[in-house]
Structures are given as structure tokens and as C-alpha cells.
């Protein structure tokens, strides 16, 4: 893992300054490229059970309150730590023997994900929202399981000098995957409608196309090599029973973390850091549609300007994580992602203006990517044992999903009660608890205790 200076000061004077040529070259390392494509694979399905599905539902006439409650289908992202010990300890029949401990699970989860997306494609939000919820829940479950494996693979496969580049590449590709499954799907739906098919059929084929794109991750898993840390951990426990391995992964992941100083405060910080982003992000797509923008206007801006802002923000976050201490980077990311919500409050007062929408989307994507890269760096620094990397990282990311899944579930009702400008101002204010916790943890020297992965 990336080493973290004990204070929040800029790198020491005798530390080597980043060389841009060398910094760029590290992004072309095979391990970093593998992580990049796996990041795309992880980001692709999230919007299919989230914001893209909400646009589909809104166009089908579903009310805002019900749309807000659909945030609950993200429950698997919150509970994935429950089955993460199985991923750490058990083998997938045939696939694990052919490809290894992590890669076998990667291929298996991606095949399940394809099947779940195809099932969701066959549902109808207007006539059977219950079946839509079931299909979205299955997509989220398969996607959450894939995230468990990808996160463990990333943490275990990258050496310390490639961690910053790996995190930046992973997050940038993750956001690109999300953009393709939002703006890309909206473009596809419009294109399919242009051929003369009904809107419901166009949405179905849009989701079928996304199911096919999951194969990018499958090919990446087949081309990758098993992480050395995973191979050594597997060899060290090969004589143990499956039950013993599961219990070691489950108990070890929890006990090792909970005995740390200020563990509960750190867990609360994990829950709240991205809450401001999640609270506003839950309603961004319905907001843009309600404001009067067409589906294609929104898609074009998200896919064009938004994509560029995401890439720049992702690599900017990687630079910050490498250049500054972790706590300083967290402060920058926390403030930026909170203040960026004011761009949408401003857009609500401007009305239908494509330049204003482009600016708001750019600000959100840029700051969101920075915050996510730095947050991933923090979560990765908390995971320090390859025997239960998947379980421990899954626990942390599951907790971080609480804000998106449960705390944000009432965002639609808040928007209905307050109106859009005030709603986005409230989304800035909800960042306050995370900032207070960040200051408290910094004062307690929490970040000075974090270090590289130990084998």
C-alpha cells in the first residue's frame, strides 16, 4: 500500500519530487492496466440498478417517492461483508482450479452478472415495479460480489510503487464504466427507438447491450495473473478445512480491525465520507429530467464533458494521494465533493441551459472522482492481511454504501418537500458530520498508524 506520512504536511524536502514522465509510465505497467479494466468492469453495473434505472422508471411514470425508495435495492452493497469470507476462503468448482483463487471468482461473478442484467432487461417498471426491484436486487448482488473480488485482487496485486497509479486508474475506469451505463445506455435507447421499436423494447435492448459489455471484465480476468500474495496465502492454508478457512477470514477480518485504536470512529467516518455525494447523486438524474432537459441532452453532456472531467479528476486524485499525506488528501476531497453540490443548486435557478448543465456535471464528476480516489486509498490502507483482504475491504465498502443505500433513501421525499435549489444546499450541509470526524481522527493521530499491506 501507499505509505502515509505521519503528519498532514506536504512531502518532506528531501523526498523525490514527482517526475511526470515516470508518473505516466507507471500507468502503462501490465498490473496497472489489468486493474484499470477491472475498474471498468466494477463500475459498469452500478448505474444499471441505480441512476439509469431511475431514468427508465421516471420515463415510465413512476413517482419520485417510489424512485427514492429504489435506493434500497443497493442493500447487497451494504451487506456484502456477510458473504465475503466465502470469497476469501472457498473455491469455485472448476474455475478456481483453472484460474486460481481470485480469478476463478472473478469469472464466476461476471457470468452471474450477465444473467442478472438480462433478467432485469425483461422487466417493465410501469406494470410490475416489484419485478423490477427483484431484477435490480439480483444485479446489485452479483455486482457487489464482483466488487469483493476485484477489490481484493487490486489490493493484493499492486506493489507499493504502483498503488497510487492503480487507484487512480481503477477509479477513473470505474467512473467511465458508470458513464457508459448511464449516458451510453441513454444514447442506445434513443438509437433503438429511432429504428421504430417501442420505448420499452428500446430499454430492453439497451440493458442487453450492457450485459454483453460485462465480457470486457471476463476477458481481463482471463488475461490477468493470480496475485502473488493470494498464491502464498492459499498455499499457507491449503491443509485447512473449508470451515476453518471461512472462520479465519470472518473472525480475523473483524477482530483485527476492532482492536485498533479509535476503530468505531474510523468506521463511522467510512459510512459518512461519501454521504454528501450519495445524497445528491441519488436525485441528479430525475432533477435533470424534471428541469426540462431531454434524455439526449443529458446523455451527451455526461458522456462528453462529464467523461473528460472524470478522467482529469481521477488522475488528479491519484496525484494528490501520491503528493500529499492521506489526511490532507482526505480534507481536500471531502470539501470539494460537498461544495460541488452548489453547482446543481445554481443550475436549478438557471433552468434549461446546456452550458450550465455542462458546468454542473463537470464539477460533480471532477470533484467526485478526486474524492473517490482518495477514499479508496484510505480504505486500502486499512486492509493489511491477504488472508482476509476480501472480507475486510468488503466490510469497509459495505459500510460506505450505507450512505448511498439507507441514509439517501429519503432524498426523493426531501426534494419533493423543499424544491430542487434547497435540496442541493441541504446536500452540502450533510457533509458536516464527516468533517467533524475527520478532524477528530486527525487529532488522535489515526492516519499515522496506517501502513503498507503485510503478507
Automatic annotation (TrEMBL):
It holds the Pfam family MFS_1. Residues 31-445 form the Major facilitator superfamily (MFS) profile domain. It is a multi-pass membrane protein. Keywords: Membrane, Transmembrane, Transmembrane helix, Transport. The chain crosses the membrane at residues 32-56, 62-83, 104-122, 128-150, 171-192, 204-224, 264-289, 301-321, 328-349, 355-381, 393-414, 420-441. It is found in: Membrane. It comes from the Bacteria. Belongs to the major facilitator superfamily. This is MFS transporter. It comes from Rhodopseudomonas telluris.
